[in-house]
Amino acid sequence: MSPAASTPAYRRLSVEERRAQLLDAALSLFAHRAPEEVSLDGVAEAAGVSRPLVYRYFPGGKQQLYEAALRSAAEELRHCFDEPHEGPLLPRLARALDRYLSFVDSHDAGFTALLQGGSVVETSRTTAIVDGVRRAAAEHILSHLEVPDPGPRLRMTVRVWITAVEAASLIWLDEGKQPPAAELRDWLVEQFVAVLTVTAARDAQTAALVRALASADA
Amino acid sequence: MSPAASTPAYRRLSVEERRAQLLDAALSLFAHRAPEEVSLDGVAEAAGVSRPLVYRYFPGGKQQLYEAALRSAAEELRHCFDEPHEGPLLPRLARALDRYLSFVDSHDAGFTALLQGGSVVETSRTTAIVDGVRRAAAEHILSHLEVPDPGPRLRMTVRVWITAVEAASLIWLDEGKQPPAAELRDWLVEQFVAVLTVTAARDAQTAALVRALASADA
Lengths: 218, 218
Hints:
Two copies of one chain form a homodimer.
Chain A: H1 15-30, H2 40-47, H3 51-57, H4 62-80, H5 89-116, H6 124-145, H7 152-174, H8 181-200, H9 204-217
Organism (chains A, B): Streptomyces carpinensis
Keywords (chains A, B): DNA-binding, Transcription, Transcription regulation
Protein name (chains A, B): Helix-turn-helix domain-containing protein
């Protein structure tokens, strides 16, 4: 992701390169202001191209560009939870959270806009993009837990924890990124174990998982 | 809140009564379908009045009616956490959750629409209404904890738990209201204690609160 300024307007880019350049410029604008404050003119200026060129790539205008930028951000967020199935489980979760919080840190206002909606261009399609990230994160985590056929109580616990991660990230941005990211990460990992332990009292499958986590930890 | 059918159209209602009647009709429609599927004609029909009369009360049309219905639902949700400051803390929380889950149960699709947004009439104003409910719930709970001047770690824990309650409620609706509401309530109360306990390891104020909770429980 090179800054737009390093790509002189006269250089001939491929369609894919140009598209990526425009999405980069749009993402960085959406990352720092509310979607309703982003204009196609602003995107053209940030990318060092003409407004008609932006329209050529995104004939649907701002809404289409916004959705494409969200999809690209969502893709990046999905990769945060893409962790090799190796080594103890909790350090894997900690590494995924490190990537997630680093995404939150670098996109701040854009992350808030992505999750909180409340923009004039919010639609059921953009909500579906965000829901897709949540579901993908839950599936990644469940696959790491290596529980064959996870039941509804375990699934609910994981899904609720993911929204807790989101909420904590939004509050963290709101509070000027306090506490430090490493503390927030550890707190979230410990919360994960704590909420699983609560579920374990009612669910044999989760109880077995918690025992496995404790023995791997020991 | 009498059903619209019990109010014959010829009865002369006061302005306030008429407004409440229209909001009731709107709420019950928004409660069972997505906002984009609700029409002013439908509201007029449900309330047994003419479409022009609905416009007289809500000249802003569907958007205004939607926001007024949301505000009325938000007001009802706020009251769920309005609990006397009497008796042990966790049973107070359980009673608040009983009211909250009963609201979720009776408004199902409307609750989902309220929280998930993603509707064509979603705006930053409707998001602010929902955020207001969250903040009010957090303030209610913090006031029950009787911690003078709660610090950022305790506040974050309470706010994150509230979003966990919301997420669990949405998933609960999605899963055909399983597990039973009483089990979900107990699970949420136990989660509250569990996440406070995690925070207590890093925050003296929360640690004192967890000790007080444990001794009240004993």
